Amino acid sequence: MTARKRTNSGKQKGQPSKRLASGPPTKKPLPVKYTDLIAIHGAVATVSALLQRRGIPTNLKTLKATVENQLGGREFTERHLRQLATVDPESVKLRLQLVQDEHGNSQRELSVSLSLNHDHSKKRSLGIARVAQEIGKLNKNFETRLYDYLSCEFKEYMSWLNEEHQPDDRTSWSSQISLNAPDIPEVALHEESLVQGAEPGDTRSMVAARSGTLQSLVQTDWYKDQVVHMEVENRAPPVYGELKYDLHPKVVEGCRALGIEKHKFYKHQAEAVDHLLRLDMDVMLATATASGKSLCYNIAAGEYFASDSNATALYIFPTKALARDQLQAAAEFFVKSKLLEADEVQPFDGDVEYGYQRKLVREKARLIVTNPDILHVTVLPKHREWKRFLSGLRLVVIDEAHVYKGAFGIHCAMVMRRLLSLCKREYNTNVRMTFCSATVSNAKEHVERLCGRSSIHTVDKDGSAKAARTILIWNPPLKQGAEEEEEDETGWRKKAEVKGSKSIRRSSMFQTARIIGHFMSADKRVIAFSASRKLVEITTKTVLELLDGKGLSHLRSQIRSYRGGYLKTERRKIESALKTGSIQAVVSTNALELGIDVGDLETSVHLGFPGSISALRQQIGRAGRVPRKEASISVLVLMDSPLDQHYGKHADHLFRELPEAVTIDPANNVLLRKHLVCAVAEKSCYSQEDILEFFGGPGIEEVMNLVYSGEMEMEDGGTFRLTASGKKMERNFSIRFIDDNQITVKVQRSGDVLEQIESSKAMFFVHPGAVYLNSGRTYMVKELDYDEGTATVVQVSDNPGYYTSILDKTRVKIISEAEFREIPVAGSSKLPDSILRVHHGVVDVTTTVYAYLKVNILCGQNLDKVKLDLPPLEYTTSALWIDIPPMTNFPELSEDSFFAGLHAIEHLLQSLAHLFLLLESSDLSGWTVSLHDGTGRPQIFLHETIPSGVGLVREIYSKHIESILVYALERLETCECGNTQEGCPSCIQITRCGYYNENLDKKAAISIMKVCLHPKDHLPVFMDQTGKKEN
């Protein structure tokens, strides 16, 4: 490392010096077998560019003759292309396809795509010289990738090559290095198109060829060609980048302790560190799971610590479990590098004991690992006690930024604004921010909303090594004829189905349980995910029954369920057992989706699409984190829902398109009001200028509302303070919910606490008489007491023989209309081309749970309907509503079928919104009415379930409603249930239906959509991986 004088002149206190790094070590010449590959790449790039300019497809057949001519007659084969893709999978894309020749016979065709920076098909006027320049850049990049690949995969050989050697007397030096050079393996080709295009019965051999575990899976007697798509992700070498900032020796030592040398930073790590330290910018890192994001902010914090003995840093994680898990890695880096003492790295959350331990954190810690909750309830309200730490604060890290959505996301956005305004106003500190996230389509926009800052640099080109992985999309088979159940299915699976549905497919839950059991019997470690707590419990119970039935009872102790609501001690016990290998399998909600260390897992199973592509990628990334010879395996088992079955038809969207957008609305007046009271009380933000800077125009508007209502008053000079009534406002509220009131679920005699549920959701899950599951045990709800905030349950030893499902009714009243859009609609024989009007505004929603059904577990028959007397749930929120032509335009439809058709369309719109936005199934709801009191016409409503909304409906209204309508009609017309009236869960039946999926008419829905809800000349828009729109 070049020695340089360290200086702090010309910079703010605590900001590290900006030092340029020395260059990488010199490279020795490579043997001929590797340099030949460079020549082949150059020839392929040149010929591909010429073919592209002429609009000719690039495949082995069209490339072969011209490439061989370029190489002076040397042979060019499929093996060479596979080796090129092994070295540089980002630039050299190979795809194996089934194509038909002129006689209609299917043939294999290997297509080739090179990522040239210049789009020759659109700018042919640029000369050959420019084309050659672009090809030269591509070749130079390939040579760098080749050297990186060899250094990573053939370490011993490259170390030997770079040493000083004397040639063997019997051979020349070039012959000697060539003899010792290992062969570059041939990449395994993408074969998903073969699976999709294969005839029934052919998929078994294609999947079996991937690995022994998959071979045994598809040879089971219950495999019926369920695999509809196979994605093969090949092992890929890392892409290294040049770090232009010269790191402090102690930081270098910390990296070396982790096995990372100075010149071996991944490309995205080098870019992030350069922008944080050299360019002094906030950074957003949006790269894959296990790509080394934490090293970037550890390096930045280390530089601050090395430059200023008073500098501090704050690492914020969305959960205590994740924060504690990451604490150990951070402590190892900073203590081993001697940048910090062990007691200067501290956790601070609700588990830290009051008194001495908390005092130690306040007085000693320089790095605090925490969560947003503790900032809100402890640090910010008592910031004077944290003066030492906040005065030195230089870096704030927000990990798993994509998790900050919905009400929780808005709360955290408010907490960040309070923290940043406090640091600036009270402690005069310039805080740098680093965000880490899974890949989402609007990463930069999201974090700007989260912290209220702009000019955040986004790093999303992942340079980390990629482990080999095989991903199966598994669609349960259709039931045969009048068959209703699989012979060996347990009755428990019925509880996982869509209520009131008539499923045309076999149980997704039961298929998932079978796959988990199969992997366990093959001695594979498994993590399985499910979207709901109920499904987690039922799936675990079913796996246990299957193990017993297969004579594998000794594996019962090797599987556990895991979800929110479990006691902290129980969750930590399961996490530890999973990490150490004490248990073999876990079935979890998305609680284990985040970066908690779950150890070395080989397989993942996913019961249903988790609601977003980014969530699916996060979950898949929990397995296969440790490189191994055999590829890890992930299986996505599709459920009978419109969203899942959409991906059954368009599986390539899961891997070729950008993930959904994350949406939060910092202008939510319900939450903004609460946090403005906190900010003024903390005196972190109490002038008009402060509020405008950190909370914007909505903040000024809401603070004036607080003045008018008497909770605040404005002083001379334009500052605000709380009045006596304002000081009584609750400031110790939870930031996890909109609803501050919680219902505690307790066992009747023992008083054991099972979980806490938001008061507004209690009527749906723990109403009197409900069957309630927890940790594989069954309880009955005896009493729901809103005044006491408790739900009392009793455990039942025997299976009650039924499960419960609520019936509810909703009414929507329009309060105000903000705007409307007019969308051209394709006409029909009944109506000419017309205009579809969609409105956006504010509505009042009233939901009442008026009864529940007891449903037979075995056959799904309704045994009883029990009335309930519960208070209604009322709230004001954001909504869109669609004008529907009067029923007179549909003379073939009766009044009942007209309503049932609208109701079916409403279900589809709710389901398919997930294609474009990152949201939970409970975030969005709908309502249909044949004649609305306020508008005097038929309406379909989509509304948010969170008071004031979080911006979801506005995004749908402004950007996605046309695409959702197009996909809705496609789902109706292509669903396997055919031309039936009642439809099925794959098209119009959904879980969250207050009518128990009654009053649905698929035929009427198709008729209505073709007449008046089919956007004219519109194709659904997705974003491809480069950010370009794909129609």
From TrEMBL:
One of its GO terms (biological process) is interstrand cross-link repair. One of its GO terms (cellular component) is nucleus. GO terms for molecular function: 3'-5' DNA helicase activity; ATP binding; nucleic acid binding. Residues 514-666 form the Helicase C-terminal domain. InterPro entries: CDT1_Gemini-bd-like, DEAD/DEAH_box_helicase_dom, Helicase_ATP-bd, Helicase_C-like, MZB, P-loop_NTPase, WH_DNA-bd_sf. Pfam families: CDT1, DEAD, Helicase_C, MZB. Keywords: ATP-binding, Nucleotide-binding. Residues 274-458 form the Helicase ATP-binding domain. Residues 1-28 are annotated as: Disordered. SUPFAM superfamilies: P-loop containing nucleoside triphosphate hydrolases, Winged helix' DNA-binding domain. Gene3D superfamilies: P-loop containing nucleotide triphosphate hydrolases. Signal peptide: none annotated. This is RNA helicase.
